[in-house]
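lol ok so funny story. i was supposed to be doing the assay writeup but got distracted and ended up predicting the structure for this chain instead. priorities right. anyway since i did it might as well share w the group, maybe its usefull for someone
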Amino acid sequence: MINKRLLVKNLLAHNDENSFYDKKRFIAIGEKEGKAKFLKHVCALANSNPKNNSFIVIGVQDEDNKIVGVDFFDDSKIQNLVNAYLENPPLISYENIPFPHLPEGKVVGLVSITSNGNVCALRKNIWKYYGGMVFFREGSISMPKAFDIELKDINSQAVANIESHARNNIELTLDGVIDFLNNRHKDLESDYKVFKEQFVVCWAGKKKIVKQETYFSRVDIELINEQVKLFYSALDEVTISYDAHTFTTIEYVKLGLGKKQKYFPLEKVVITFSENGTYQIQSNLIFDPPQYDKKTLHHVLNSNNAILQKIENNIALNASEKLDLKYVADTYLICFLNGFEEAKQLMERARHLLKKYDSSSYQKLKVAQRILRKVKYN
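and the output, tada:
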């Protein structure tokens, strides 16, 4: 079993970016350019490593390898994105790796890419890349190549050595459990569960009971053996259940117009642990978005746009507009889910404006965009 934190450290210590490893300060797959560049690198790494894994480490400064982290990213449908845009798509996973020195909510992203052994190519046009383009790695650069180029296995031994040095042990596991329960989450309800005598899942959150159902907010869930953060949210509510074989979470999101907020179930995730030392994660979107009158939503959309226009022009908001600002993220999301396609671009515009203007509204907007990604790629 590989300790993913050790794997990241070993990758960063392995000279510099090469044909089986890339590093990024961040990725922006919510934007067309960022999505295209991400798909290009996935394609190139898959073609350059037909017999072994390749990796992208996200949250690292390029100049000095300093680990600065990125926001927790739980887009469980990222494989769907790759399948939609790439021919012969590789198997891909995105994992959130906690590091002790990073602030709460910040992690290192680890993208693992496993080729299916065939030439990977772009399936259709995106940004400035054309359908049919094939990419390979030349050192640290992803370059377009001829489609009929032969796939070569040149990195298997190097990758095997790096993964071997990242194997987990009982000391790392015990230290991880103690640190999670006693240090990082001593102000929250926390617990752990051992599955199949091998896997240790720890979770923490602020507990509340409503109608005999237990909910957690400020939730953090980690698979300690692999040092992978499975779930993190400072805003949403989660139910947790488990038996001898599975660990299940249901995430609820709070949505509504203005003060009329209600919780809606968003996604159910079931982790199934097997006797052979493996596990499977299955996610199921169970979201049934609220529906509203189109005329009402037109008014809300125009109101949001007027608020953003004031912020962009450095005009002070009045008391009513400051109150409406708290719900801008929710209302844009509701508008999109009710057929207002332009709300997606407006959310991106709002994100750039709110990042500097109001941190609370900015955090809510990031949550709204995460929900939008889940719905889009489901």
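DSSP finds ten helices and 17 strands in the chain. The chain has a mean pLDDT of 91.
back to the writeup now i swear
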